[in-house]
Specification:
The protein is α+β, with helices and mostly antiparallel strands and 458 residues long. Helices cover 21% and strands 29% of the residues. The protein is globular, with a radius of gyration of 22 Å. The structure holds zinc ion. Zinc ion (ZN) is lined by residues 1-2, 325, 329, 348, 351. The site of zinc ion has 6 residues, from helix 3.
Length: 458
């Protein structure tokens, strides 16, 4: 995501790599963890969801089924489902008078535990251990009430935004379970790519942009049934409201569906369509063709900044927006996944660097990174940052500066080839800092260790 306008960098000041051994290095010893499956599991999730909305898209109820495979060597005994829609600091478990926005009930396929992590995590014990390679499924009723705030899971006037609203399967890997908190800025989400089939029954007066390819048919009188299908995505978002719409096709054949509220200036709509079409084609050439065929640009004036979801981005739009940044996230977080809580630089830094490359020219980067303290590092988790501005300085700008310096070390053509291969090697998968460092080092005979040390990429 982004919450401030990302400036176009103008002045070049990349220094030669300098050795700088931070004291934090000593604290990077891997903490022993309990035996855990090394392969991220459960994988190959398949979501089958049917939801019906009220008159204005504020409340959605229905049934959700998630099937999955155990890809770990050890039997899978339970799954964690994340209810990120309850993650906002003002919501959590709610009160009797104001319950949490997302609730599940009538769980089948396993035994549910009480919710944890401020009602954002639901453990479901499977009836018997699931062997490696076997599939199972859980299902539950789901109720989603859109909170009354300007937010990616919130509203703007008559428009409803349902980002991070749908419960998602969490991951167990070498680090164990992922029960990370929502820190209130940036993203804590970590999911594996899978398939979604989401059927939304809504009043015909509401336009409903959504992740995936959507087919609409008439439902009950006055209602429309929109069926969205997506493959190779790690989340599903939608919106509902009296949006204005326009569709264009990029020169390389990607469909861009614009949806905007009446408050969005015409210049902003035109900017997003033009820049969006150019960016999705350019990033497709650089990182591998955009695989989903279409993308929805959901424009508003109320939500802070922009937010990326597979095949759908929310864009706070005036005369311009962060459209390139959010489209770059289609590759860096979406197609090439990462643990956004533990290694946010792999999505925010790469999306920022991608926009710098697209804009061209030089970038303003300090000769030496300006760390808040000795323990700071590029590869720290979300909850190590004091606030959003510190987070952005390191994980957006600092990481993009590290990648720009890597580009000047490798050469621009070599950097582009390396990134394209790196994307191909992790397409619809998950990458780590170690994976990226290996990929970069394989592209040059120069020792990159000093560069990693300088930028505290451990
Ligand atoms: Zn971002």
């Amino acid at each position: 995501m982004t919450s401030i306008r990302l400036w176009r960098p103008v002045v070049g000041a990349l220094a030669a790599a300098a050795l700088l051994v931070p004291q934090a290095a000593a604290a990077q010893d891997p903490t022993p963890v309990a035996p855990a499956p090394a392969a991220a599991t459960p994988d190959r999730p398949s979501y089958d969801v049917r939801l019906r909305s009220d008159a204005d898209g504020s409340h959605w109820t229905g049934r959700q089924t998630i099937s999955f495979r155990n890809s770990a060597r050890t039997p899978l005994r339970f799954v964690d489902v994340r209810l990120w829609g309850n993650g906002h600091p003002d919501d959590g478990c709610g009160t009797p008078a104001k319950p949490s926005p997302v609730s599940v009930s009538r769980v089948k396929g396993g035994t549910p535990h009480p919710l944890t992590v401020r009602c954002s995590a639901l453990r479901i014990d499977l009836p018997k251990p699931l062997p490696r390679g076997a599939r199972a499924s859980v299902s539950f009723d789901v109720s989603i009430a859109v909170p009354d705030r300007a937010h990616r899971f919130g509203r703007d006037g008559a428009h409803r935004f349902l980002g991070n609203a749908l419960p998602l399967l969490s991951v167990q890997d070498a680090k164990g379970r992922h029960l990370d908190p929502d820190v209130g800025f940036g993203e804590s989400f970590y999911t594996l790519a899978g398939d979604f089939r989401v059927v939304l029954d809504h009043p015909s007066g509401l336009k409903v942009p959504a992740t995936g390819t959507t087919v609409r048919r008439a439902g009950a009188p006055g209602r429309t049934v929109s069926t969205s299908v997506a493959h190779g995505v790690r989340d599903f978002a939608w919106a509902a409201g009296p949006f204005r719409t326009k569709t264009i096709t990029s020169p390389d054949g990607i469909t861009l569906n614009a949806y905007w509220t009446a408050a969005v200036p015409a210049e902003g709509v035109a900017y997003n369509l033009k820049e969006g079409a150019e960016a999705i084609d350019e990033f497709g050439k650089r990182f591998g063709r955009y695989p989903y065929g279409e993308i929805d640009l959901v424009m508003n004036t109320a939500l802070e900044g922009g937010m990326e979801f597979p095949g759908l981005v929310y864009l706070q739009t005036q005369e311009d927006s962060a459209v390139e940044h959010e489209i770059a996230h289609q590759w860096w977080y979406g197609i090439v996944g990462n643990d956004q809580f533990s290694e946010p630089w792999l999505d925010e830094g790469f999306a920022t660097y991608a926009t710098w490359v697209r804009w061209g020219g030089d970038h303003f980067c300090p000769e030496e990174p300006d760390w808040p303290d000795d323990a700071s590092a590029m590869t720290r988790p979300m909850d190590s940052y004091a606030n959003r501005s510190e987070f952005m300085k390191i994980v957006y700008t600092g990481a993009a500066c590290a990648l720009a310096e890597l580009e000047s070390t490798l050469g621009s053509q070599e950097m582009a080839a390396m990134l394209k291969k790196y994307a191909r090697d992790h397409w619809f998968g998950v990458s780590t800092t170690a994976d990226f460092k290996r990929a970069a080092q394989a592209a040059t005979t120069k020792d990159l260790a000093p560069l990693w040390e300088k930028h505290r990429i451990y």
